[in-house]
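User: Predict the structure for this protein chain, please.
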Amino acid sequence: MQKILHKLYLIVGFLTTFLWLIIPKKFKKNSNSLIYYLLPDWYLMSYFFPIFALYSYFGASSFLALKTGLDYLNIGISGGNYFIITRDQEPAEFLMQLGVLVLIIICLYKQQKDKLE
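Assistant: Here is the predicted structure, written as structure tokens:
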């Protein structure tokens, strides 16, 4: 379950961070489109990038430690001389949850604005 959750966080982090660069603007401007409401704008990227970066590092840390011979690049359980420990994921997950909350508030605002027009 943990590996599936890590991959899910990685995919969601990537999509919410970089999808605004990939989707053409004409789809974003159409208020009848679901993309208009669900696609985070560029200024929300700072909420979602830490989860993408952290879980990318989680996926690459053992490979980096093997290739460089630097043991502190592994993920530590707690304490010790590690670059990242497992508890470091909590603030990144909290930021992502805040980003989802802000995205929901923005979607509600967009719907209210479209309803009034």
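The radius of gyration is 18 Å.
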